[in-house]
Inverse folding.
């Protein structure tokens, strides 16, 4: 491959560097992209080693031996050489040789490993994934030093190929789940992927649904727990989030911290999250429906307080509630998009100032301010950002139904929501498990978190090859001996 051909294939890129050995038209040339490869390897290792050889007489075999390059690094086609260079390699070309050498290198700057920011950690490892695929694989390998951990590398994207890694424990996972993931990725016919979130939308069972059917996490302990249960992990180059599937709706309200706490505390936290989800969906719609159609349901003392609070409000309860919900969403979005310190100020000060000003201006009542704030706060309790966002969106049609049909509208909304969830699947498996189909034995790690000694069976939802996580009888015998 000569210099003109290299520039032709790389579209005359400005970061292509060509090093000649010994003389301007030297017999050995080194090609690399200065923005990707580590130049110190070229000048501190490769060139000094090559200068020790009589380059005008030796062949490619002697160069290969001198550099200590494996035969797997041989490159026979120009296209392959360019592809290796785009993926950080340094290409060594010997004039007249049948093949060249691609030496791996990485001069890119990556983010250092830090604590999770989206999924906060109370107890457990203070470590999160980064944007580099190999670093993420290293993290998982470090915490799972087992030969049963299988790694399949796939490529997706016709114009801009992106590396995708599929991980699973081959002695536990259901092969059908692996085949489903592999088939959906291989059948993709798109130009490129930029993130695991985009990939999740392509391979999900129902892309029109608001509910996520694949877990996204930046926490290695959640991924390791999922792999041990029989889930399949999908890692994408350039994304700090890992996909886990199949999954159920209940798993979006579970946190890895649940397994670090005592079972009573973990169970209490899970029940609180379920209660918060229902509260977030029902609180504002019930307020609207009650004030619009069902005054008789309100106690007399509370009705008097409501009447006094709404005496200056010119809007009906429906428009009043929608106005406040929209303001809350505007504050939330502004706080998320602004820099961290400014965003916190907007969220706290803006909420207090705007809320007080709206009440004084007579646009809303104090009671609705409290209700909307509680509903918004409840939606943030979910450990998963995706499911929290889904709950906030669903709250708007529920408010509209409550304002138009009253209690019947709320019942109709919940009926439609239940029928939709019962039809959903995750990689072909029922999304509402263990509620549908009913499996009471799996409730001990669903709605509640039973003592760890009781979780000796893996979740049947994943159809694992090994049903038992540990031998319960031997564990009990050991405990009796120790006592």
């Amino acid at each position: 491959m000569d210099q003109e051909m290299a520039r032709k294939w790389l579209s005359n890129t400005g970061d292509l560097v060509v090093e000649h050995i010994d003389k301007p038209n030297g017999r050995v040339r080194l090609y690399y992209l200065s923005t990707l490869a580590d130049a110190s390897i070229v000048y501190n290792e490769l060139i000094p080693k090559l200068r020790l050889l009589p380059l005008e007489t030796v062949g490619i075999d002697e160069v290969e031996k001198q550099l200590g390059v494996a035969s797997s690094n041989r490159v026979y086609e120009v296209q392959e050489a360019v592809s290796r260079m785009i993926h950080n390699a340094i290409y060594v070309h010997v004039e007249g040789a049948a093949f060249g050498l691609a030496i791996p290198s990485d001069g890119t700057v990556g983010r250092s490993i830090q604590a999770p920011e989206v999924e906060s950690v109370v107890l457990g490892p203070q470590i999160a994934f980064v944007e580099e695929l190999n670093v993420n694989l290293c993290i998982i390998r470090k915490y799972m030093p087992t030969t049963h951990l299988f790694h399949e590398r796939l490529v997706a994207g016709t114009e801009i190929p992106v590396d995708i890694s599929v991980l699973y424990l081959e002695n536990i996972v259901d092969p059908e789940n692996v085949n489903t993931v592999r088939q959906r990725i291989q059948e993709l016919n798109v130009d490129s992927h930029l993130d695991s979130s985009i990939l999740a939308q392509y391979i999900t069972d129902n892309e029109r649904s608001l509910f996520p059917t694949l877990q996204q996490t930046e926490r290695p302990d959640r991924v390791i727990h999922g792999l041990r249960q029989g889930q399949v992990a999908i890692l994408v180059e350039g994304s700090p989030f890992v996909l886990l599937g199949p999954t159920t709706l209940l798993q979006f309200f579970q946190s890895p911290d649940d397994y670090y706490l005592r079972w009573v505390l973990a169970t209490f936290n899970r029940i609180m999250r379920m209660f918060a989800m229902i509260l977030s969906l029902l609180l504002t719609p019930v307020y609207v429906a009650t004030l619009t159609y069902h005054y008789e349901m309100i106690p007399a003392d509370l009705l008097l307080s409501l009447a006094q609070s709404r005496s200056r409000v010119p809007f009906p309860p429906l428009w009043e509630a929608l106005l406040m919900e929209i303001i809350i969403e505007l504050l939330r979005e502004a706080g998320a998009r602004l820099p961290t310190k400014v965003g916190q100020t907007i969220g706290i000060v803006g909420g207090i100032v705007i809320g007080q000003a709206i009440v004084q201006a007579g646009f809303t009542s104090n009671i609705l301010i409290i209700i909307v704030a509680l509903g918004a706060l409840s939606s943030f309790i979910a450990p998963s950002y995706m499911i929290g966002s889904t709950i906030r969106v669903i709250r708007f049609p529920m408010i509209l139904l409550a304002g138009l049909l009253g209690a019947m509208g709320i019942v109709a909304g919940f009926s439609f929501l239940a029928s939709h969830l019962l039809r959903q699947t995750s990689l072909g498996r029922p999304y509402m498990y263990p509620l549908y189909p009913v499996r009471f034995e799996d409730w001990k790690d669903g709605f509640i978190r039973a003592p760890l000694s009781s979780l000796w069976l893996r979740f049947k939802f994943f159809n694992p090859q090994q049903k038992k996580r540990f031998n319960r009888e031997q564990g009990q015998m050991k405990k009796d001996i120790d006592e």
